[in-house]
Design goal:
heterodimer; A: alpha/beta; TIM Barrel; 8 strands; globular; B: alpha/beta; Rossmann fold; 2 domains; 4-stranded parallel β-sheet; 3-stranded antiparallel β-sheet; 9 strands; elongated; disordered C terminus; binds iron/sulfur cluster
Chain lengths: 313, 248
């Protein structure tokens, strides 16, 4: 065990893992996080907390993760390189460790242009691959980026994102290989809608021998409305949404119901693809639907959660 | 080439408020080529200032780039009489040229231009930013395409997940730098460079202000100030003890 996190235990025990995403509030109320925890605690193995997602200011992901921890949830700390330089990142990592946070997902971060502070300066002192490598060195070599020693353990289960669909897509697997080489233990991918293309990607990734080295969790997004699927198809980079799914949403009597059905079907199809070790549900502003999706996808009950203190070996 | 743009006339007039007699300086190199500080622009500026009720007591186009203090000093000396009548100098050059002039005259010196970027000149109409002067050039590893400048996030190890049809997520009219780099490396038969994990960049090389004094080269200690040390970039094996003790 590298971190002893619940997510790591579930994956190493060979279970098909379920993670979900929780966006922290645009305010200082811990109740929102506690509410999310109560809702999702029994239906997923770990909860990702986004880090000022789409460059919109929200409660700090470290703080929200700490609250989840109090609620007995295993949090995945999302950490982007947009807002912090290498000093701030390492300091937050130490703090996260002290708070018992054991999973970290290393991300580049959406450009500030898309958020609510478009005139801000971005940092990008290091990039996501360098962040993976930095956390790995902090954990395994107990060294800061500067080479100085760190006191004590930093047992983190290190994650990275993968986008199998960005076009041109010929070098996406190579990019994943780089993240694995840098030290990623698990991957949470961009949302899958095009199962064929994803299957092809996974075959290539498998041929490169990457799936023996990393746990791959495929992302899904439950779609709430026709407007949402159209918007995502047109405007969200890195998604590949087949026309057929848009048509299904358009023709459905109840769009939400169809959205749930599609999501459940996607999970079932994705699950059959060799090498997929779990699913990551990103129900943006629709977290309440997650329990139903997990249940209908046949993923309940979840392996028993361990809420006690976790230590690396 | 340093790309500049002329400030709006309103702003220039606001800057010159309270000044009557203005001396104009252009630049024969970048600002002439890009049309922001050549002879035509000096003439236009003179006319515009006079139309606004100012007196233009003289104009100067140095023989070398305005940022070359050696020639600019000489030429300002030759314009001594006109300069004595001036209560302000307006420089149509980049920020470096403007500061060069400012340090050589006794009256307030103002910029007529905003200084934008270091560019490739594609034509007299089109220039694009190519270098951010990072002090630690990576072009050898990136197919001659600069990710520090051309990637909106300055990523060092490949693209973010945001590009679409090869275009950057931040500006859909611009190519994703890393798609360009990957393709170029592929054409050059250097794909393996794409797989190398690059260490965090040594930004101390870009710490400003930078200064080089070649006279000190070969003497003991640092020959330069501001981080332009010729030390190799720290690889994983050299990381230990790097900057140990830190800086105050
Ligand atoms: S790597 Fe640095 S020095 Fe080289 S072109 Fe880019 S910004 Fe300029
Ligand atoms: S899309 Fe390409 S150029 Fe734009 S920020 Fe991402 S990697 Fe950089």
């Amino acid at each position: 065990m590298k971190s002893g996190s619940h997510l790591e235990k579930v994956l190493t025990a060979g279970h098909f893992a379920v993670t979900a995403e929780l966006g922290p509030p645009k305010g200082g109320d811990a109740g929102v996080i506690r509410h999310g925890a109560a809702m999702l605690k029994d239906v997923c193995d770990a909860l990702n907390v986004t880090d000022n997602q789409t460059a919109v200011v929200r409660m700090s992901s470290v703080a929200a993760c700490a609250i989840l921890k109090q609620e007995g949830v295993d949090p995945v700390l999302q950490m982007t390189c947009r807002d912090r330089n290498r000093l701030a990142i390492q300091s937050d990592i130490l703090g996260a460790s002290a708070l018992g946070i054991r999973n970290i997902l290393c991300l580049t971060g959406d450009h500030q242009k898309f958020g609510n502070h478009p005139t801000a300066k971005n940092v990008h002192d290091i990039d996501s691959i360098q962040l993976v490598q930095m956390v790995k060195r902090m954990r395994d070599e107990r060294k800061f980026d500067c080479g100085e020693e760190i006191q004590g353990e930093l047992p983190f289960f290190i994650g990275a994102a993968a986008n199998p669909f960005a076009d041109p897509y010929e070098f996406r697997p190579i990019r994943l290989a780089k993240k694995v080489k840098a030290g990623a233990d698990f991957i949470q991918s961009q949302a899958v809608f095009n199962v064929e293309k994803f299957r092809d990607y996974m075959a290539r990734v498998r041929d490169m021998g990457l799936l023996e080295k990393v746990y791959f969790l495929a992302g899904v997004i439950p779609v709430k409305s026709v407007g949402m699927i159209r918007y995502m198809k047109e405007s969200v980079a890195g998604l590949d949404i087949p026309d057929e799914l848009v048509r299904r949403m358009e023709n459905a009597e109840k769009a939400r119901e169809e959205g749930v059905r599609i999501c459940v079907e996607l999970i079932q199809q994705i699950r059959e693809i060799p090498g997929v070790r779990g699913v990551h549900i990103m129900a943006v502003a629709w977290e309440s639907i997650v329990p139903r999706i997990v249940e209908e996808a046949g993923l309940l009950p979840r392996p028993v959660a361990s809420t006690g203190p976790t230590q690396g070996e | 080439m340093i790309i500049t743009e002329q400030k709006p006339l309103d702003e220039i007039l606001a800057i010159l408020e309270g000044h009557e007699s203005v001396f104009l300086v252009g630049c024969p190199i970048c600002a002439t080529t890009w049309g922001t500080g050549g002879e035509p622009q000096l003439r236009q500026m003179k006319a515009a200032l006079e139309a606004a009720g100012k007196r233009c007591v003289g104009t100067l186009m140095p023989e070398e780039s305005t940022c070359d203090q050696r020639t600019t000093r000489l030429m300002l000396r030759r314009s001594k009489e006109a300069l004595e009548q001036a209560d302000a100098v307006l420089v149509l050059a980049c920020g470096a040229g403007t500061q060069t002039v400012a340090a050589l005259v006794d009256v307030p010196t103002y910029p007529a231009n905003n200084t934008l970027y270091l560019a490739r000149l594609q034509s007299l109409m089109v220039s694009d930013e190519r270098c951010r002067l990072c002090g630690e050039c990576v072009l050898a590893e990136t197919g001659g395409i600069c990710p520090v400048t051309l990637c909106a996030k300055g990523l060092a190890n490949g693209p973010c997940g945001g590009y679409r049809d090869g275009k950057c997520e931040v500006d859909g009219t611009q190519d994703c730098a890393w798609v360009l780099i990957y393709r170029r490396l592929h054409e050059l038969g250097q794909e393996e460079r794409f797989q190398v994990i690059r260490e965090p960049k040594d930004w101390s090389k870009a710490r400003h202000p930078r200064l080089i004094d070649k006279r000190l080269e070969g003497e003991k200690g640092e020959s330069t100030k501001g981080g332009a040390q010729p030390a190799p970039s720290p690889g994983p094996s050299q990381r230990e003890g790097k900057r140990k003790g830190g800086e105050a």
